[in-house]
Fold this sequence. Notes:
Number of helices: 2
Largest sheet: 8 strands, antiparallel
Structural class: mainly beta
Shape: extended
Oligomer: single chain
Order of helices and strands: HEEEEEEEEEEH
Helix content: under 10%
Low-confidence stretches: none
Strand content: 25-35%
Mean pLDDT: 90
Amino acid sequence: MGWKSAQKLIHHWKILRGDNVMIIRGKDKGETGLVKRVVRSQNRVIVEGKNLVKKHIKQGQGHEGGIFTVEAPLHVSNVQVVDPVTGKPCKVGIKYLEDGSKVRVARGNGTSGSIIPRPEILKMRTTPRPTVVGPKDTPIDVVLEKTYDPTTGKGMPDL
Length: 159
């Protein structure tokens, strides 16, 4: 990737894996589907069952060859998140609630302005957190030990 294309990468993504999106340009225009994968290095997304292309795969040692139908990536500008209330494509905005939590909201003409929930698939971890205490884990009594007293300033290093 050259420096010109690296400048055009999206830094703040508003489309996430698991979002319900509508394709607004291309051969599958007007169809909706779930985002299967986000390719941030190319500004592209793969939508489940959409933008299907035939791929010729040569036979190898561990697999058979042939002509397969695969999902090709779409540029992120060709898809829009679907408003959960109206079912129409909308822009995504960011809003902070009273409790300080950050949420995504539907923006644009003819949209409801409702909150777009985070996809459930993002809450699942690919590798579960370890439940067994390992040799490099800090013991809980050391973690909970109070080492600084804010009233007296005891525990501050001498600088």
